[in-house]
Amino acid sequence: MTIEELRYRQSWTLFQKIDHAVGVISQFYSRLDGKVFVSFSGGKDSTVLLDIVRRFIDPDCLAVFCNTGNEHAEIVRFVKNTGNVQTIRPKTSLKKIIEKYGFPLISKEQALYIRQAKHTKSEVLRNIRLFGKKGRNGKYLTQGAISKKWQYLVRIDRMLSVKH
User: Fold this and answer.
1) How far is Cα 28 from Cα 34, in angstroms, rounded to an integer?
2) Are 55 and 81 in contact (CB under 8 A)?
3) Which residues contact 140 (CB under 8 A, 6 or more apart)?
4) pTM of the full structure
5) How far is CA 163 from the centre of its chain?
6) Which residue(s) pair with 63 in the sheet?
7) What are the pLDDT digits (tens) for 96-108?
8) Alpha-carbon gap, residue 106 to 81, rounded angstroms
C-alpha cells in the first residue's frame, strides 16, 4: 500500500472502514469455508475484530485466548465474560522462557539482538549488533544495532565471563 492509499483510507468514514473490514473478512472466511477463529487477546483491537466477525459474518465464530499467566486480571475476567472463547495455555511457562531467552527489552527485536551479541561465535554479527552496519561512506549506521541504552547488558555480561 502506498502512502497515498493509506491517507485515502484514513479519510474514510467509520462506516466505510467497517464495510471494508467486513468485505476483507468475508473473503477470508469464504476462502477457508468458515473454518476460522479469532485470536482474542481481550485488548481493544481483537475485541473490535471479534465484534465485527460475530456481528456481520458468523455470530458463533470461536475466539481463542492464550493465557500465558502474564495477563492483567481485568483482561482475564473480561475474556471469561465473553462468550464462546476457548482458553489455551503455552506448553512452556513464562518463567522458563525468560530463564532461557531473557526478558524482551523495549522490543522483541532488541531482545533478539542482545541475545545474538551475547551468544554468537561470529565477531561480524557481534560487531553489527554492537556498532551497526557500515555504510558506503565507512561510517556506522544504527541499523541492526542494539540501542545504546541497552548495550551495557552485553558489555557487562562479556566482562563477567572473562576469566581473570
Assistant:
1) 8
2) no
3) 131, 132, 133, 134
4) 0.63
5) 38
6) 38, 85
7) 888 887 776 678 8
8) 31
